[in-house]
Amino acid sequence: MGEKCLPLSTKLILHLTLLFLFCHVCSKFASAAAFLPESEDDSLYINCGGEPVQTTNGSDYVGDNETKSFYVSSNNNWAYSCSGTFKSDTANSSDYVKNTSCGISNDIYVTARTCPVSLKYYGFCLHKGNYTVTLHFAEIVYSEKEDYSSLGERVFDVYIQDDKVLENFKPKAAAGSAKKEVICTFNASVKQDHTLRIHLYWAGKGSLFTPPATNGPLISAISVTREKRIELPSGPVSVRQIIDATSNFSTKMEIGRGGFGVVYKAELRGQVVAVKKLSSPSKQKLQEFNTEVHTLSSLKHENLVQLYGGYSGKELHLLIYEYMEHKSIAEALFETQSPLKLDWKTRREICLGIAKGLKYLHEESRLKIVHRDIKAQNILLGGTDENLKAKISDFGLAMLCEEGNENMVSRVAGTNGYLAPEYAMRGILSQKADIYSFGVLLLEIVSGRSNAVSRPTQETVYLLDTAYVYNKEGRLGDLVDKDLSSCYDVTEAMRILNLAMMCTSQTPTLRPTMSEVISVLQDEKTVEQVFGAPPTDSSSTTMAGAYLTSAAEISSTSTEVPSSAFTSYFMIKEKKEKKKNFTVNP
């Protein structure tokens, strides 16, 4: 018997059986693809009875305006079947789709699909997991006073995955009137067959003969989205649980703000985490979001903030981090109300921890990475009050950059006061840019001062300028935080200050590597052994003074120096470097 002679129901069974087999093949690849970002098979949007449409929230609904009793989409990811007969002598196939020209503003409610008795929708090749199924209804048939159809009442049942979720459902009554939308949301699980079934069924209730006699179920649109689960050390959590844990991102749960967005505190499965929410999903911010996800997901180090997972939907973008109870070193150093007081030992360990994190990024990780935004606000503190651990955070601006290579960037990003001059002025990016920022950060940690202080009617005071002038005058030790009083190791303080000056050299090639930085911080090498001795000729010392200030030269006085020329040992050494490399073409 040829296919054209088969009964309609048999055709449908054969077609759907082929699709089920197709999805069985899909399932073979599902586990391998589970770690990939969300694909199109994690969602389904259907504009029932209408043309393709994009809603105001950016969701793209596919068209569904066929008048056949069954239909399979062109990409085989969904289908519908319709059975039964309308109780009207004039009914025809066009009655399967309905539309209205007025009274409804939202495009997905302008049209609807109807069916006499049984209307089934199938979603195929969906990943296994939990889904949110949203059914959109608006009564656009029993709505007109002129033909008395407004007196009619539509009643039907709804099943999802064979479970009855709505009984004796009346769209018009649920919405309050005709041509008013009503949205019903349900949870459903997709199992091994990778198929979702939505069944609308008329059980003979409601109006039968009130014109126009199109009894049976009616639906305007369907949206199906996968409930993404994020794996935490304490177990998996859903996006809904995250929203609930932050009280729908309440300001009461807010613990920080930045250029990326807002950070909230949340407790999930007994574990406290930090939730970063993208505030304005511009193209640039979404790029930074994806950069942070991809960068941190491949990095594991004790001095990097751990990223547990992320979620990216059309309107919601989240990153879930380990929670750092003590916040950033910026708050500990610069905010007078901070309960955290950093003694010298803690500051020294913070410097070393940051250096180890940067060494991992630059030299040890599989991907060699330039952070591009090393600053006090991006160094978070974990651990106990007695044993704080510094961790680098916020990798939204990070870039791949092989050791020793320079990249030209079209958009300079970062924070003023921490930007290396060659990067800020010429867009030349290398790992040396991070080292420059690290040098500024060392000065802040030792001095307890912000790198730039703006005052009304006065010039901005830059910490680095102050350090250069102090160094020229032979009193670099005056930068040490007065809050430390005499409770610090003078030799260690001078070692770190001298190291900071080397890291902030105006010439990138004169800056150390992070391996060299760590060797100095751990007292394995002296600054002189790594960088060589300061100049000894009289002209140089007259101009710059002794660059490596000794511990005995620490002065008890302290002054602030406004923005000034960078006059130091570096300027002399840099001139020699340039003269040595300068050649004249014959």
TrEMBL record:
Reaction catalyzed: L-seryl-[protein] + ATP = O-phospho-L-seryl-[protein] + ADP + H(+); L-threonyl-[protein] + ATP = O-phospho-L-threonyl-[protein] + ADP + H(+)
Protein's UniProt keywords contain ATP-binding: yes
Cellular localization per UniProt: Membrane
Protein name: non-specific serine/threonine protein kinase
UniProt xrefs under InterPro entries: Kinase-like_dom_sf, LRR_Rcpt-Like_S/T_Kinase, Malectin_dom, Prot_kinase_dom, Protein_kinase_ATP_BS, Ser/Thr_kinase_AS
GO cellular component, one term: membrane
UniProt-annotated binding residues for ATP: K277
Database matches in PANTHER family: LEUCINE-RICH REPEAT-CONTAINING PROTEIN DDB_G0281931-RELATED, PROTEIN KINASE DOMAIN-CONTAINING PROTEIN
The protein's enzyme class: transferase
Main location: membrane
Source domain of life: Eukaryota
GO molecular function: ATP binding; protein serine/threonine kinase activity
Keywords annotated in UniProt: ATP-binding, Glycoprotein, Kinase, Nucleotide-binding, Phosphoprotein, Receptor, Signal, Transferase
Domain Protein kinase: 249-531
Organism of this sequence: Escallonia rubra
EC numbers for this chain: 2.7.11.1
Topology relative to the membrane: Single-pass type I membrane protein
Range of residues in the leader sequence: 1-32
